[in-house]
Automatic annotation (TrEMBL):
Its cofactor is Mg(2+). The keyword Acyltransferase does not apply. Its EC number is 3.1.3.12. Removes the phosphate from trehalose 6-phosphate to produce free trehalose. This is Trehalose 6-phosphate phosphatase. GO terms for biological process: trehalose biosynthetic process. The gene is otsB. It catalyses: alpha,alpha-trehalose 6-phosphate + H2O = alpha,alpha-trehalose + phosphate. The keyword Magnesium applies.
């Protein structure tokens, strides 16, 4: 892990954007915390129209994929840009011009049991939100009384104990139950590079969360990981850090301008 990735001011950001544009890039963009600020509830994290326009302009100039922990159809609808590639459920569900890959399909029966079990067991805990996805289920704790958060964790682990084909993953104020598969955002990105014929492009990954670290590692040595700082001070495998989401906007503007 790189403890101290390079922090960029606006001049450095413009310089980096020009270098990237000259390298024939392909962009892999995370959604929550990267294109949109973290909000109290998932449905509140709507994409700002200016950010949508930037991503749209970028996609008019080079390949772009949105790689998210969200359900694929949900993030596709939130982004609202047709024709680009999407990976949902942390890469377990991919829809790209080359076709669809649904690695989570064999785990649907387990998820169909786990989702109502979680909804039932958490119904009495105010603020606990269950977000069902095609290939995972997320339990959000952001709105739960801090004293009750450990109880939410216990419920999640109780349900997990009955589902050996699922595993637990933690994120920002959330627990996720997902398929017990050796697959992550990094593997999804490498799959997309191969399947879409993007091997001649320079992969640039933007992300903020723990699950984006797999993506930074996947492109290390052949591309660039850019972490959007979330103030956690967490070590990262990214090479560069952007201080916030507005700087992501300025960076994408600079790349678009440099691509012409
Ligand atoms: O990979 P991402 O696109 O960053 O998705 C990761 C998770 O993002 C969402 O949850 C997070 O954002 C919510 C809205 O800002 C916030 O309320 C929550 O606390 C965060 O964990 C999404 O709801 C999850 O499904 C994604 O896995």
């Amino acid at each position: 892990m790189n403890q101290t990735p390079a922090a960029l001011d606006d001049a450095g950001l413009t310089r980096l954007a020009r270098e990237i544009a000259a390298a024939n890039p392909v962009f892999f963009l995370d959604y929550d915390g990267t294109l949109t600020p973290i909000m109290p509830r998932p449905e509140m994290a709507q994409l700002d129209p200016d950010m949508r326009l930037r991503v749209e302009r970028l996609a008019g100039r080079c390949p772009v994929a949105v790689v998210s922990g969200r359900d694929l159809e949900n993030v596709r609808q939130m982004v609202g840009i047709p024709g680009i590639a999407f990976a949902g459920s942390h890469g377990l569900d991919i829809d790209a011009p080359s076709g669809r890959q649904r690695l989570g399909e064999p785990f649907r029966p387990a998820l169909k049991r786990a989702i109502p079990a979680l909804e039932g067991a958490l119904a009495g805990i105010e603020g606990a939100l269950v977000e069902p996805k095609l290939y995972a289920v997320t339990v959000h704790t952001r709105l739960v009384d801090p004293a009750l958060k450990p109880r939410v964790g216990e419920v999640v682990h109780d349900v997990l104990a009955g589902e050996p084909t699922l595993r637990h993953m933690a994120g920002k104020e959330m627990h996720e139950l997902r398929p017990e598969l050796d697959w992550d955002k990094g593997k999804a990105i490498l799959h997309l590079i191969e399947a879409e014929g993007w091997g001649g492009h320079y992969p640039v990954v933007l992300g903020d969360d723990v699950t984006d670290e797999d993506a930074f590692i996947a492109v290390k040595g052949r591309g660039l990981g850019i972490r959007v700082d979330d103030g956690s001070g967490r070590p990262t495998a990214a090479t560069v850090v952007l201080p916030d989401i507005p700087s992501v906007g300025r960076f994408l503007d600079a790349v678009v301008a440099a691509l012409g």
